[in-house]
Write a structure and sequence with these properties.
The protein is of the alpha/beta class. It folds into three domains: 3-109, 3-Layer(aba) Sandwich (Aspartate Aminotransferase, domain 2); 152-336, Rossmann fold, CATH 3.40.50.2000; 353-533, 3-Layer(aba) Sandwich (Rossmann fold). 45% of the residues lie in helices and 17% in strands. The protein has helices at 3-11, 28-35, 46-49, 54-62, 82-91, 111-146, 177-191, 226-248, 263-271, 283-290, 296-309, 318-323, 353-358, 379-392, 407-417, 434-439, 462-469, 480-485, 500-511, 514-531, 534-545, and strands at 17-21, 40-43, 65-72, 93-100, 106-109, 161-165, 195-200, 212-215, 252-256, 275-279, 312-315, 334-336, 365-372, 396-403, 423-427, 443-446, 473-477, 493-495. The strands form three sheets. Strands 8-7-6-9-10-11-12 form a seven-stranded parallel beta sheet, sandwiched between helices. A six-stranded parallel beta sheet has the order 15-14-13-16-17-18, sandwiched between helices.
Length: 546
């Protein structure tokens, strides 16, 4: 049913207790709160559910009884299993259950239907999942044997073809850091004279038509448990690998590191070509700290095998290298490749007038942010600083580009403070549109925070390098890699992470000093061109293999 019929249905009996599982959906909670202001709401976000073992999660869901439960796939930023959400809905004690689909349709489910579907989907998935688990244990032994095979030399000229493997089952992404990274590296390989074969579970629309995209969809019946699906994906890749190599004869395999994924290393050793493993983190560390991981031992074995099979491991930061220290990788195996930017795509000559006109910003000073509205991106600090700035200078506006868990709450606070005409939330924009949005800004902000729990910040924010290439004045947190790339007063300004007062003062300083903005912008653009391009990353990889 559509939204109107959904609300009409609920109004028939005025639910008193409502449970919402919104994930990335920013509109379902405000909608229900507005329609049922006297109801009691429980909202379980991704943060509430992350890191909870399945048994504890089950007890948490069974602890209360509700009149209505709404789970949402609408505006989902990642691939999320509908079957797994149906299983969750089946165990909650409630009168009515609804799933909001990606097409903005509210689907009602009876408990008996969901129970039947859970049983019929879960039993075969459980059987094949356990089989995949046992097979993957055996495959790690094969990987150990493959480690003994001699490494191959990288040919300088022969058949310049790169097979780019992304096995993380990310789905069809439109924007975000990983899209920038994949697109940037593939573009750089092509500029270096290589043909690129891209292999993933979904097409990437941002790639040019000259890139051959091979889509290997995961087993859908395993989507009740994503770990089973990721394990089985290894065998799907191995089954098809021989055909790909006979057809395309690649000379290099480049893979984004992913949980449970060891197929790339085995394929490369069997095909007698080198493999580069791009590590943006330790996947085991990230899953155990920020999400959940049931088969920890197997995941650790797979990560160890993937790292050992790789000829080189390209890490985005020193923090990632430290995360991987338990695996005792030799230093000569590591390539430091921070994230980068395509300086032909992001550059100072791009005209942002259309974006300014669209949001009535023609005569304003515009402060820009692009990224995920999550805690560690520092958007709450930016909001506090913005609230101070707009009270002191009525000609300064904020263009906030992107989406995330904190967006709806920040927009609500913006309206409550009466500054919603000064803080403009654009939502997610296509990566191809990002340069024009950044061009519309005078100052760009990267206000990252450290991770919770005192973990060392290991990120290499793509936004920072895109800011740099635009030749704009930048304010960034003095935090690990950011504090090393941005030199305070030379090519940008640094502030202490989480210090909204300091951030607001620097925003006002740059807003009132066009000469300083120009100088910092010129210097930071020069640094981006000389050191931080995707072309430089590919160059370091090729040189390390020769």
């Amino acid at each position: 049913m559509d939204e109107a019929h959904f609300i009409q249905f609920l109004q028939q009996y005025q639910p008193q207790r409502i449970l919402i599982l919104p994930f990335e959906d920013k509109s379902v909670e405000p909608l229900l709160r507005e329609e049922f202001p006297h109801s009691t709401f429980t909202v379980l976000t991704k943060q509430n559910l992350a890191g909870i073992p399945p048994t504890r999660l089950l007890f948490r869901l069974l602890a209360e009884r509700y009149d209505v439960v709404v789970a949402s796939l609408y505006e989902s930023a990642v691939h999320r299993s509908e079957s797994s959400l149906q299983i969750v809905l089946s165990v909650i004690r409630t009168r009515s259950r609804f799933l909001r689909s990606q097409n903005n349709v509210y689907i009602p489910f009876s408990k008996w239907y969901l129970t039947y579907r859970a049983i019929t989907r879960f039993i075969p998935a459980f059987f094949w999942g356990i089989l995949s688990t046992l097979s993957l244990y055996i495959l790690t032994v094969c990987a150990f044997l493959c480690e003994k095979l001699p490494k191959q030399q990288f040919p300088k000229q022969q058949n310049k073809t790169v097979m780019f493997l992304r096995p993380d089952l990310a789905g069809q992404l439109q924007a975000g850091g990983s899209v920038s990274h994949v697109k940037g590296m593939i573009s750089a390989f092509r500029k270096a004279g290589y043909r690129v074969i891209y292999i993933a579970d979904a097409p990437l629309e941002a790639l040019p038509s000259q890139v051959i995209q091979i889509i290997v969809q995961p087993f859908l019946f395993l989507d009740v448990f994503d770990e089973f699906q990721l394990m089985a994906y290894n065998f799907q890749l191995l089954w098809r690998a021989k055909k790909w190599f006979l057809e395309y004869r690649p000379s290099l395999l480049y893979q984004r590191h992913s949980i449970f994924s060891i197929a790339g290393g085995i394929i490369a050793r069997r095909a007698k070509i080198p493999i580069i493993l791009e590590a943006n983190d330790s996947e085991v560390w990230v899953k155990t700290h920020w999400s959940r991981l049931f088969f920890i031992n197997l995941a650790t074995r797979c990560e160890a095998s993937a790292l050992k099979l790789a000829d080189k491991v390209a890490v985005i930061s020193e923090g990632v290298h430290e995360q991987l220290e338990p695996y005792r990788l030799p230093s000569e195996k590591i390539i430091y490749n921070p994230n980068g930017v395509d300086t032909d795509e992001f550059h100072p000559l791009i005209n942002g007038d259309k974006i300014r006109a669209r949001f009535n910003l023609n005569n304003a000073i515009v402060v820009g942010f692009i990224g995920t509205f999550a805690r560690w991106h520092g958007v709450e600090t930016l909001f506090e600083a913005a609230a101070q700035v707009v009270q002191r200078d009525r000609n300064i506006f904020f263009l906030l580009i992107g989406d995330g868990d904190l967006r709806s709450s920040l927009q609500y606070r913006t309206k409550k403070l009466g500054i919603d005409d000064r803080l403009i939330f654009t939502g997610i924009v296509q990566h191809s549109e990002a340069p024009a949005y950044l061009a519309a800004c005078d100052v760009l902000v990267s206000p990252h925070l450290g991770f919770e729990g005192n973990e060392k910040f290991f990120g290499s924010p793509t936004k920072l390098f895109e800011y740099m290439a635009m030749g704009k004045a930048i304010i960034a947190s003095n935090l690990e890699q950011l504090g090393k790339i941005i030199q305070d007063g030379v090519n940008g300004l640094l502030v202490q992470p989480g210090n909204a007062e300091e951030l607001s003062k620097n925003i006002l300083r740059l807003s009132h000093d066009p000469t300083l903005r120009k100088l910092l912008g010129q210097n930071v653009r020069k640094a981006a061109v000389e050191k931080y391009t995707w072309n430089k990353n590919v160059e370091r990889i090729i040189n390390a293999l020769l």
